[in-house]
């Protein structure tokens, strides 16, 4: 973004920005918004379609963006139709090894150990699924 202010675009350049993220995060697609604002306020750049945000890898939203982009540019972008996948996720259990105190921004670090073999890599997402509390008829609320 710092380099964008140094660009002197001699010929108009058409652009479209699409952001991927999750509405579970407070700064949902913030970088895409920043890029869109930067390009919109920089001479020599022309928006073809408004900013699109894709929540949780929504194929339908991405496909809608592709259709709008194709109409605006006259370029054909073919996306394969996705069949309905009933993906069964393998659940892994973890135990909390340690937790730091919250920082000024209310973030903290939780260290986990997998119970059993578990392969993961940087960028993988972790979903927490609490065990059903039969006696209360629901799920425990976070503290």
UniProtKB/TrEMBL annotation:
InterPro entries: Flavoprotein-like_sf. It comes from the Bacteria. This is NADPH cytochrome P450 oxidoreductase family protein. It comes from Maribacter litopenaei.
């Amino acid at each position: 973004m710092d380099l964008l202010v140094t660009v002197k675009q001699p010929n108009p350049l058409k652009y479209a920005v699409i952001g991927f993220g999750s509405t579970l995060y407070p700064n949902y697609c913030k970088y895409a918004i920043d890029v869109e604002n930067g390009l919109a306020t920089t001479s020599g750049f022309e928006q073809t379609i408004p900013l699109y945000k894709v929540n949780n890898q929504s194929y339908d939203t991405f496909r809608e963006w592709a259709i709008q982009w194709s109409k605006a540019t006259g370029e054909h972008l073919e996306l394969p139709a996705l069949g309905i996948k009933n993906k069964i996720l393998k659940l892994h259990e973890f135990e909390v090894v340690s937790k730091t105190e919250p920082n000024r921004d209310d973030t903290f670090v939780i260290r986990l150990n997998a119970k059993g073999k578990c392969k993961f890599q940087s960028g993988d997402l972790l979903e927490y699924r609490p065990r059903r509390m039969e006696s209360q008829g629901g799920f425990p609320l976070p503290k």
